[in-house]
Amino acid sequence: MTLILALDASSDVLAVALSAADDHGHAVWAWQGPGAAQASSQALPALQALLHAAGRTLADVDAIAFGQGPGAFTGLRLACSVAQGLAFGLGKPVLPLSSLALVAQAAWLALTATESRQPEDLARTPLQVAIDARMDEIYGARVQAVLDAQGRVTQWQHPGSGRIQPTLMSTTAWGDALPQTDPDHPGLILGNAPQRLAAQIVPAELAQRGWHAADLTLDAIREAGSSAAGIVPLTLRLDTRDRLLDAPGGPLPWRALGLATLAQQQWRQAHNHADAAAAGLLVPPEAALPLYVRDQVAQTTAERDAARLARQQDQAKAQMQAAPPAAPTPVLRALTLNDLDAVLAVQQQAYSARGWTPPWSRGQLATSLAAGETLLGEFAGDAKGAPLCGWLAGQVAADSAELQGLAVTPDAQRTGVAMRLVAAWKDAARQRGAREMFLEVRASNDAALALYRAAGFTDCGLRKTYYSQPVEDARVLRCGLTGSAGDAS
């Protein structure tokens, strides 16, 4: 009997499985739970829960398998590091599994179980795996199942021959590259791309090329799968063709089942291969690596990120250069203690709209004013009672200035308020002898990053877990105020 422990975090779901296979069938202990940020805290407890449910220990395991990629960058690193760590400690080999083959295997199990599709018929059907890669891109590959005499999948390959070759393409390019299929034998698209990118992937256009998306839910999370006492895996049995026996009701962890059966496939394939390590089928722990399809186009990814920020900067600059409204004319002035009610109200509106906890209290603002620090505000006109649209807090110490806080009401955002406040504070700090200015901003706040970069700030550091509620890193930005070479002003 071969016992394999496997995990995959390449998608939004963490899938774990313990599989025990012999000539009489296949027992699987499987569980799926939330992935992404939660995967790191659940991976090891989930694997331990599988072993406990099966009455096994880590010493009983023959190999560790993991979803190699392509997929979510952090998830791939997590799965690889867990697999490596366990394999090193146990002195066991590692099975790096293609995430695209995993989707194909999970879909195969679901289709043959829920739609009564015959394996031989499905093996003749053109299959395309398409996974949402974010940024309007798709990880994709044409795949074909190789069957044994019983109709069980023995391996996944590119149609004809050869290992699966994942591609990274824009949604448009992927659609254009789909080959025309025989109308009498339409192809199936497996994976989450058609659902995630429904606005770009039009079913009617796919049908014209002879394709349709398989209506499957591979990443379901059973509410009964977790409890206050811990993680409770499902115990399932498969026959020698990898067909489910006595499946329980409710959604099944198809991704975890695909993980288990794919791992056993690759184990058998490795033991029939002359050099399994060189082929990447079964490798020592130190040779296990994630598959980053974007590695070969890393600069393109960086350029893509830069282009996105550049568009936002252009928008911010356009707002700065736009002519002010004829009436009323915004009024920018220093704020006093009498303005603190309005300042706190603006802060509450701005931060609650993003789900963040407001950082400034009345006492902190009052203390800053008493210490001579700056609080600037822009009002919607000079009439008495004109509302405060936004404010900025800052201080100068010696020749260095700091932009400590900036808040603009949601309805006044993208109207130039923030840019005018930043420009005014730069001028004021320069007049007070500051030669440079620093600020911190949440790493996920793309709009603020675009604003500050349009105002001349550049990245100069990163502060890990700087913010709380929610916890997040802070990017540190700097802007020169002297106008000398190398300084933005």
UniProtKB/TrEMBL annotation:
Keywords: Acyltransferase, Transferase. It is an enzyme of class 2 (transferase). Its EC number is 2.3.1.234. This is tRNA (Adenosine(37)-N6)-threonylcarbamoyltransferase complex dimerization subunit type 1 TsaB.
